[in-house]
Amino acid sequence: MILQALYDYYQRKAQDPESALAPAGFEYKEIPFILELREDGSLNQIEDTRFIENKKKRAKAERVTQGVKKTSGVAANLLWDNAEYVLGVDTKGKPERVKEQQAAFLEKIRALDLADKDKGINAVIQFLEQLDHSVLAQQPLWEEITKTNPNLTFRLQGQPYLVCQSRLVQNALSNSANDESAKATCLITGETAEIERLHPAIKGVWGAQTAGANIISFNLDAFTSYGKSQSFNAPVSKEAAFAYTTALNHLLGKDSNQRMQVGDASTVFWASKEDALEDSFAAIWGASPAKDDPDRNTSAVKAVYEAVEKYGRKPAVGEETIFYILGLAPNAARISIRFWHVATVREVSQRIVEHFKLLEIDRSERDPEFLPLWLLLRAIALLGKTENVPPNLAGEVMRSILDGRPYPETLLSSAIRRIRAEQQVTYARAALIKAYLNRLTSTENLTVSLDIENPNQGYRLGRLFAVLEKIQEEANHGLNATIRDRYYGAASATPVTVFSTLMKLKNHHLSKMDNKGRVNNLEKLLGEIISEIQDFPSHLSLKDQGRFAIGYYHQRQDFFKKRNKTEPMTTANSVTTTDNQGDTE
Q1: Mind listing the pLDDT tens digit for each residue in 499-513?
Q2: Which of 56, 157, 551, 554 has its CA 20 to 30 A from that of 267?
Q3: What is the phi-psi region of residue 204: left when phi exceeds 0, alpha when psi lies from -120 to 50, beta otherwise?
């Protein structure tokens, strides 16, 4: 299914004349230097294709013949390769091996048998046969080439295209002899065709080998059956193998807008037909925010909201387009499928909207309206670092979002643990806990803002703790630490051990306040909250500790909320209004 979808994607993009996908037998490769030759095989110049990107030099990607799979042996590419193969530059102190490499490179060009028909091929062969390093050493870029062993290719002077891009070379590659004995039914196309023994490498998976890795590979007898060897155990035709690997390499490319990193999973996505979600999906999750458009995430999520509100659950144009999401993770020389999700654009959009609605909670104006996934995960990681997020967690969260099922239990426990360790109920942590609990059970209904009707013991105790902290702050202006720093952990887990002490402290703090009206309002609010608390429990479950955090967060946010003059006054509001008048925060 995955390979079939990638194969179909390649076929769709290949029909687009502006597509960046290479045709059969070719690939796009970054080539820093091009050797420009005259027709007699002499060197005219060495062209530097590099440009500055993010303060670093980056080579231009050129369409070259598809590279061979490099192993420990000598294997030359056709008409392009590194300086060892092309110019015989010894960069590793192995002169004998370099001679073999250079000979293999020249022999592969001769084997095309196009020297009489193609001026470019003839010039390259003459250049390689007459190779003189003393002439090359006069070039200003020679020293850099000998040190870095970059990829090189050729262009004939006066021609706009590379030698490897000539029509004769393309025809020669497409008419190369087929091996009839290697034919079988392709598992992707269903047609009888020559089977690819070694699939092209897939590059761009974070953490995988730089030379590339494979989804399909068999290198031990234990993995084979029926006497088949290597990839003949999973027959895929050369054409299909090229198509799916080219499509995947294109999606994983540096310039791809259809990839993002979800934890340790390099994630790519595409649609069965052209769809706007292909362009906005990464922005929705806050992946690679554009420097020139900091609101890209917000705009992308709002666009999905509008689409869902406009069409609802009724099929509309493009809504039944299939959307694919593929998460890949490295596994030695292979690639593991971390997750694979297939749904319509409409279903994916609805899941995204559901997720962001679950996250909605009161926030300050400085906080982002829609929390990106990476920001959520960092909020529960040690020191707020992405590398401290558990490896599988990001992928599990993504699957939960797309499947519409409960979030991983690790999210709640991690959020509670970070809150207790840092005594900080942040916007991201509160949003995460609210989303987790509301999705876990249909009866849970944690609101966006303060819910004075919520009778849950954990929620009430959280609110009570927030009020007690506020009383302490107002009675002792300029405090560096509050009861939260010392008592939050115990108050949220074992309330009975600390609340009696906190209630006594409260009386002391209230006695220090000069504004008696303010004291009355705060005591009235305390009475409202405590009226639903029968007794301080000895222990709160993990879920109730989550509700405690939400109650605390809601009450704190409510203290500092700006209100309209026409807004009806409640006991809590009246406290807040008075509080705001004298609050210096």
Answers
A1: 889 988 888 888 888
A2: 56
A3: left
